[in-house]
């Protein structure tokens, strides 16, 4: 798609035209032309606050992005979202908790939003994808500069049914000053933010503060009293965040009309059961794995567990080094 065609295209909304006009004051026409051509060729959708597809909840924050670059399904951004964020250097327990709460939120009908970072963010995205849910990843870089690089495949899988979002030009490299801006979008897209395992200096506390300033709900998962990795969550709870011990603690704080409509669309998943391996016995899930590996749907049928519980159990076994995921199959490790 060429520059002149872009400006005349029916799909180019008036807000986009207005953005082009304002951008010309500081950006050379050639640069704008290159950006728009790149977006058209790489299936990136541009949204502004005046676009019907621009998420209404994001438009309500004090400083909504003037332009959103979206890869994937822009319609997902209009669905009810809950953000799950936390430490990059998360503990095994924190990763399992993130997988658990993200799976349960997905089973309850929510799109789960996070920042595609290592640790809690990645665990939340992966858990939702494993149960066939929808997830949104908000980047602190351009859509063509996935960060961290090891999440390139994860980003690709998110885009199949969900979406990746950024306010930065597609080729923009990640930079420290970008991430607080990314965090305000994560909070702005969501009805509430769940913080899983955060130290006193965790960037996820910025997301929680922004959520509170935007009038969104703030939730936190507690850890043990002397765990420095959970000190940030404990402070949030002391300051008024809702303590989360079950997904119902989140649902209770949301509008009853919303939770009722989501419940009508599908049953809420039950809480996670303790794995048999915790008392020294072999987890029975290991006996359900074929020699050449088993796909998630087959394990779901064989185990009789709900998707959220199965996903969390598999995640813990993976953390224990007892299974691995290879090409969409779960493999038992010797």
Give the helices and strands, then pairings.
Elements: H1 3-8, H2 14-23, H3 29-41, E1 44-47, H4 56-59, E2 68-72, E3 81-86, H5 92-107, E4 111-114, H6 120-130, E5 135-138, H7 152-161, E6 163-166, H8 178-189, E7 192-196, H9 204-213, E8 217-221, H10 231-238, E9 242-243, H11 247-251, H12 256-265, E10 294-295, H13 296-303, H14 307-319, E11 323-326, E12 329-332
Parallel strand pairs: 3-4, 3-7, 4-5, 5-6, 7-8, 8-9
Antiparallel strand pairs: 1-2, 2-6, 10-12, 11-12
Helix pairs in contact: 5-6, 5-14, 8-9
Question: Explain this structure to me?
Answer:
- The longest helix has 16 residues, at 92-107.
- By secondary structure, the chain is α/β, with parallel strands linked by helices.
- Helix content is 41%, strand content 15%.
- It has 14 helices and twelve strands.
- Among the domains are: 75-177 and 184-250, 3-Layer(aba) Sandwich (Rossmann fold), CATH 3.40.50.450; 276-332, Arc Repressor Mutant, subunit A (Orthogonal Bundle), CATH 1.10.10.10.
Write a concise keyword list for the protein shown above:
nine-stranded mixed sheet, globular, alpha/beta, Arc Repressor Mutant, subunit A, Rossmann fold, three-stranded antiparallel sheet
CATH class of the domain at 75-177 and 184-250: Alpha Beta
Name the strands of the widest sheet in spatial order: 1-2-6-5-4-3-7-8-9
Largest sheet: 9 strands, mixed
CATH architecture grouping of the domain at 75-177 and 184-250: 3-Layer(aba) Sandwich
Instruction: Tell me roughly what share of residues is in helical segments.
Output: 40-55%
Please provide the count of β strands: 12
**Poorly predicted ranges:** 1-13, 23-27, 267-280
**H and E order:** HHHEHEEHEHEHEHEHEHEHHEHHEE
Distance between the termini: 53 Å
**Radius of gyration from the alpha-carbon trace, in angstroms:** 21 Å
What is the overall shape?
A: globular
Give the class from helix and strand content and strand pairing.
alpha/beta
Proportion of β residues? 5-15%
CATH fold name of the domain at 75-177 and 184-250: Rossmann fold
Provide a count of the helices.
14
Average pLDDT reading: 82
